[in-house]
Design a protein that fits this description.
The protein contains 6 helices and no strands. By secondary structure, the protein is mostly helical. It folds into 2 domains: about 35 residues, no CATH class; about 45 residues, no CATH class. Helix 1 crosses helix 2. The protein is elongated and about 80 Å long.
Length: about 110
Amino acid sequence: MGAVQDLSTSVGVKRACDALSVSRASYYRQQPRALCPPGRDRPRSSARRLQEEEKAAVLACLQEERFQDCSPAQVYASLLDEGQYHCSLRTMYRLLAAEGESRERRDQLHRPV
């Protein structure tokens, strides 16, 4: 691969590989990863994500007393019937899970065994 690298400075990688019967894929595979563009320093985030005050508004709706025994799907449907749309149903579940409130929301009977 050293010969290809030496020759590629004057004639180019494609011609050097063709002249020495070396696959260009093999040549590039042998190159150090430093030639690759650097990755992102921070994780991507969507421009459409909810802001903190919007998240607080959705959680406030989910925690209202009238929705105390309702699933997020029922809350979502009720809010849509009232003409309110805050976020998707899946986002409601994500917000509840982040708050640790994604358990069964109805009271459960515990019968002695």
